[in-house]
Specification:
The complex is a heterotrimer of chains A (746), B (180) and C (317). By secondary structure, chain B is α+β, with helices and mostly antiparallel strands. Chain B contains 6 helices and 10 strands, in the order βαββαββαββααβαββ. The chains are: A alpha/beta (746), B alpha+beta (180), C mainly alpha (317).
Amino acid sequence: MSKNVDLNQEGVQVKKSACYFCHQNCGVLAYVKDNKVLAIEGDPEFPTNQGGLCCRGNAALLHLDHPDRVNYPLKRVGKRGEGKWEKIPWQQAIDEIAARLQDIKQKFGPEAVATAGGTQRTDDWARRRFMNYFGSPNGFHNAHLCWIPTFMVETAIYGWCPFDLDIGNSRCLVLWGQNPGASGMPEMHHIKELQDKGLKVIVIDPRFTETAAKADLWLPLRPGSDLALALSWLHVIIYEGMADDDFLTNWCTGYEELAAHVVDFSPEWAAPLTWLTPEQIRAGAVMYATNKPGNIQWGTSVDQIGRPAGATMHARALLRAVTGNLDLPGGDLLTGPSKDFITDEEMEANDVLTAGQKAKQLGSDKFKMVTWPGYQRIADLTKKFWGKAPTAEWMCEAHPPSVFRAIISGEPYPVKALLVSATNPISSYGETKLVMEALRKVDFMIAHDYWMTPTASLADYVIPSAGALERPTITSSYGCADFLLASQRAIQPMYGRRNDYNFWRDLGLACGQQGNWPWETVEDAYFDKIKGLGYDAKTYDEFVENQRFHFPEREYSKYKERGFATPSGKVELYSSVLEELGYPPLPQYVGPTENEIDNPELAEKFPLVLTTGGGFMPFHHSEHFQITPLRYLNHSPYMDINPETAAKLSIQDGDWVWIETARGRIRQKANLTPGIDPRVVFTQRGWWYPERDMRDPVLGGCMESNANVLTTTADVDCDPFSGAWANRGLMCRVYKAEQAAEKEVC
Amino acid sequence: MPRYAMVIDTRRCIGCHSCTAACKIHNELPDDMVYNPVTTVGPVGIFPNLSLSFLPLLCMHCDNPPCVDACPTQASQQREDGVVFVEDSKCVGCLSCIMACPYGARHHNHATGTVAKCDFCKHRLAIGKLPHCVATCHQKARIFGDLEDPESEVSKLVNGNRTVRLLSELDTQPSVFYIY
Amino acid sequence: MSNKHQSWGWMLAVDFFFAGAGGGMLVLAALVELFGNSRMSLAGNLLGPAFMCIGCIFLIFELGKPFRAWRVFMNPKAILTVGAWTMSVAIATAFVYAAMALPAKAFPLNLLPFDPIVWRDWVWAGKLLAVVNLITGLVVATYPGVLLGRLKGRPFWTGPGIMALFLLSSLVTGTAAHYLCGFVTEAPSVVVWNALPGVFALLLMFQLVLWIGYLWIKQSGATENEAAAARRWTSGDRSLAGKGAFLFLGTLVPLVLALLPNPAAQAVAAALVLFGGVTMRLLVIKSGDDRTYLPGEKRYNLRLPNGDEAFLHKSAH
C-alpha cells in the first residue's frame, strides 16, 4: 500500500488475485479502481500464504508496469539480435507468425516446429493443445529438472506420485535437496509450526541452507551422491528391522529381490561415496523409519543430478514403500488425479496427435520416461485405474538438449521454428553454449514473454505476455492432485499484452484450428474446468469470489480397496514398467555424473565438486533482476566456498572468481562460508544483467555469471530414464578473477 | 493510549528478506534506503557443526530515544504511543540523530537532504492495519501490538518469554523485543 | 551509496576546528583581560569570532537542508541547539570586545562623522565582556566534545574523555592562533605574547599524554566495538594519519619547536598546531563512521551496492 493511496475511496474493488512468480501462487488481494491496481497485499484468508508475501510477491506492482516490460507485439526490422523492432498490431503478428509456421510445416513437417515454456509462468495446457492440433510432438519445458522425472518413475512403481503430503499428521519430514526457506515460503511456515509440535525434519543438502539451519538432522552429502544415500537407507531399514513387514507382504511385489539387491549397500559402503559418516547415514534412516508416519517432500534436486537421477528417484520411492508411508494418515498421499474437476490433461487434446507424430518426439528413442513411450504406458495404467492420466504437458515432452541439437545439426530431422513462451533458455537450460548456438541457428524464433530477455533479444517476433494480476490462475498441480485454488485477474492486461492462452488460441485459429478452441477467454475455459464441482457459480469470477478453493474429503489407504495403478495392482518394488521400458527394475548404483572415483584424471584438472541451481531470494529462476528494490538486496552473483578452500586459493570474501568446468567458465563473487564442505562449491543460478546492452553479442551479459555455462547435457551425462541433465555433482575448478574483466562476449 | 511494540521471534525467521522488500516497495523508499534489514548471523562453526540465524532489524522505537534528544530542530519526535518519527518539514539534515542512534535505524535521504526512518507504518496503524513488515511475514516472525493491552500477543510474549532487547546496556529502552 | 554520507563529513570537522579554535581564542583573551590586565592583539581578538563565523558557514553547508538552518535553534534539550545559541552570543560579544581596540582613525571608522565604539574606554565593559567571552568561549570550545561523548552508539566517541580532548585542542589551537596573530598586529603586552609558545607547549604535552591515554583506554576498553575503533588509530588504517600527522607532526614536533627560543620556529610550531587540530578533528569525525554494529550488520552493509552499480542508474537513460 503506497502511503499516498486512499483505499477507502469510492469505486475501489478488492480482487482475489494470485501471485504468479513461482509455483506457490500465493493469494493476493488487489485494490483496483478503473482497471488500475492501486495496491496489493497478501490475502490473509488464503490457506497457503495466510497473508504473507515474499520479496517477489511484494514487487508485483513494480513488475506490472516496469519500464522494461514488453507491452506491444514487436517485429524484428534489423538483423537478429540487433535490437531494432517495429511495433505491430496483435493480429498482424499472429497472421505473419501463423503463415510462417504453416510454411515450415508444409516444407519440413509439423515436427519442425518446437515450443519451450517457462516453469509456471504460463498456462501450458493451451500450448500443448495448439501443438497437438498443429501436429508437433516437440513441446518442452525445463520439466526434466523439475520433479517430472520423479513423478513418472514413482508413478511407474506405485501408480501415482504424492503431490500432497498429509504433513499436519506427520512425525518426520525429509527435505531431500529442498530449501523451502528460500524457495517456498508458505511451506516453510507450516514446517516451522509443525516442528514446534514435534515434527522431526531431516534436510539432505550439501549446503547449510536456511532450512538446514532449522533441521533436526542435516546430512551434507557430496553433491550428486544421493543414490548411495538412498540405497544405504534401504539397507539400514531392511536389515536393521525397521521395514513395514505388513505393508511389504500384502501390498508390494519384489521385496525379496530388493532385499537381496541392497544387501551390500551398507552405510559403511555409502560413507566414502556420500562423504557422510556411517553414523550420520544410519541416524537419518532411523529417524525417518522410526518416526512414522513420515514424509519425503517433493523437491527437484534429484532431478538435476544427471546420470544417476532415475535410479535415485527409484530408490527414494522405495523408501516410502518399505516404511509403509504411502497413502496413510500423515504419510505421502496418493490422491490420483482430480476426480472432481477437469484436469489439464483433459484440455490438452492428446488424442489428436497421431501415433506417427508421437513417435517422432525428439529424444523419445533414448529417454523414455517423460516422452511418449513411457508416458503412454503409464497413462494407460492410470487411465485404467484412476480414469485419468497425468498432464502430458510436463510429463511427456521432447528432450530439450535433443531439440537444440536437432536445430544445430538437422538430425534426426530439421527443426526450423522455436516458440519460446515466457522462458529464457539461455539462462535456464543446460550447457548454455549449445543453447546459444541453437537459438542463433534456428530459422524462426518467437518469444512470448514479459521482458526483453537475452533469448527474446534474438527473436524474430516478441509477443507481450500478460503477467501476475493480469491473468486468472488455477493452482491445482495441473490436476495431478485433488485440490484446487482459484484466483481471478485484478485487471485486464495492460497495453497490448495478452494472456498466453489467447496467444495460442489466436495462433491456432490462424493455423486452421477453427472449432478446436471453444473458449473465447481463459475464464471461459476455467469455468469449464470447475463447473462440475457443483458449486453455485455462473462464471469463473463468481466461483473465485464466493468459493475460491476446493479441498475434497481426504481418503486414506485407498489401496486397501483398490490396490495400486500398476500392472500387478501392488507397489512394484521390482518394477515391471521400468523393466518393460528397458530400464533396470531395481535401482542400480551409478556414481555422480562427474566424480573423482570413476574419473580421477578429470578430478585432477577440476578438483572441486560443483553444485548449482538452488533457489535464492529475492529472484525466481532468471527473472526479477530488473526490479531495482529487489536487486538492491542482492545485486551481484555469489558463489559459496569454504574459507579453508578459499585461503588455499588466495580468495577473499567478495572477490570475483572464475568457476570453470569442462564446458566453460563463469564469474561470480566469492561468499566465504563454513556452510559448505571444503571440497564443494555452489554457484547461484539464473544471473544476467538487464542493465547492460541487450543486443547481440552482449545480450545482457548472459554468459558471464550464468551457472548453466558449466552444466552438461551430453547424452551420456543425462539420466537414461528421463534425459534429465546434470546441474549438480560436477567437477570444477575455481580461481581468482582479475577485477577488471567486465565483459565476457557471448 | 496504546503503547506499540514488536516482538521478533528469531527462531522463526528464515532470512527471506520479504519484510525488507515489502517496506522498501510499499513505502516507496529511495533505492538506496533500507529501514529494516535482516542480517545473517553465521554460519558459525566449522563444517559440518554449524549454526545459523537471522536478525531482523528496524527502528527500536526506544522509550528513551537518544535520537529525539539529539535533534536540534524538534523534527525527531516521539508520539505518546511510542512511535518515533521525523517530521520532514522541520528536518535540516544535520544527521545528529543518525549519529545518536546506536541501531543504525536512521538514514540520510540523499534526494531530499533530510533524515528518514521506520515509523512503524503509522499511516497504516491509523487505519487499523499492521506495519508492512509484519503483515508480509510468512513465518510470523514479527509480532506487533499494544503493550498496554495485557491480552495482546506482544504483551504475552514479552511477559511470558525470555525476551531481550538489543544493546540494552545503553539504556535506550527499545520497544522491539527479541526471542532467541 | 548506502554507506556514503550516512555519517558526518569533513565540513563538520572543519566547523569544529574553527569553532573550537575561536572558542579557545576567546578564553585566552578573556583570561588575559581579567587576570593579566592586558589584551591580546587586535587581529587575534577579531580572528576569534571570525573563526566561529567560518565554522558556522561550514556547519550550514554540512546540513542536508542549509536553508532551514535557523531551525537548529529549536530544541533546548539538544547539545547542537545549545552550541548554536552559545556560538551566536559568543560571536556577538567577542566582536563587541574586539572593537574596543579598533583605532578610531583607522579605516573604516574614519569615514564616520563620530566614533561608534562608544564603549571604547569603559573598563568595566571590557571586564564584563571578558567574563561573558570566557564562559561562552569555554562552552564553544567544549561542546563538540560533549556532543560526541554523549553519542552512545559511536564507540570511539562515547564517554567524557572526548570532551577533555576537544577542550584541550581548542585551547592549544586558540593559543597558537593568538601567537600567529601577534605577527599581524602587535599585542599590547609583548611579555604575554612571548609567553604563548610556552603555554601551548605545555598544553601540547597534556594533549600528547591525554591522547595516548585515551587510545590506550579505548583499546583495552569496555566493549569490543570501542577496542576495534581504537585499533584503527593505533595499528589500523587510521594509524598513519592519527599517529603520524596528528600526534607526531601536529603535537610532538610543535612541542619541541615551541621550546626553541626562536620566533620563527615558534611560528612554525603554531602553524603545525593548527594543522594538528584540524587533522585530529577530521580523524575523530571519521571515526564516528564505526557504529556499535549489531550481529551480522557489517557484512550485510558490505554486501549492499556502493551506489555506482549500473543497475541503479539504468532508469536514468
